[in-house]
# Entry
Amino acid sequence: MLQIESLNTYYGDSHILQGVDLHIAPGSAIGLLGRNGMGKTTLIRSLMGYVPAASGKVSWQGRDVTGFTPERMARLGIGYVPEGRGIFPNLSVRENLTMSARRGPGGRNDWTFERVLDTFPRLAERLEHGGQQLSGGEQQMLSIGRALMTNPELMILDEATEGLAPLIVAEIWRVIAQIGKTGISTLIVDRNYHAVLSHTDTAVVLEKGLVVAGGESGELLGQPELLARYLGV
# Structure
């Protein structure tokens, strides 16, 4: 579904991504692990078109999409839940959801307004609340719900549980697992490596912009020395 080949990205003179390769198959879940500052968010922002890559290739379903703008990538069927949530604080919950509603590739409309509210009952209770009136957990639910309203084929979640209370974190992971069961591919970044590996099929580890480890998530869980070396756990 998504193929990244030899991606190199710079911030000024700093070489952030150094020849990164990544492959996401249809219906699969992949984890992206690494300490802070190792290039995880830069990789996501590069493939989504927010940050221009210096070299390399991004392909979507066999089509070269290198250099596509974020809105073009979204139209291809990629839902993005960014770090920091990125909701519209001056719009209500209802408006945040309905403004992003559209059919997905091929006319799919599995994720309707009603289905999102069934998935996040808290949002149903706060439809007329402004985005700025929501708690951090509710804002994260809204960010995920808004991405689902685009009926994506791939969901990218960047630090979806950061700074949230334990009960909300558990709810977010429950929803992420539910999303995966619907056939949507997922790319998950989160500091909780154990949760990531428990909710994905495969994972890769970044260290200073390089892929230094990868494989089946269950096998990686069984390699505590490797995880300690690259994740500091």
User: Anything to note?
Assistant: The first strand starts at residue 2 and ends at 11. Strands lie at 2-11, 14-24, 29-33, 55-60, 63-64, 78-81, 154-158, 185-189, 202-207, 210-216. The chain has a mean pLDDT of 93. The longest helix spans residues 166-181.
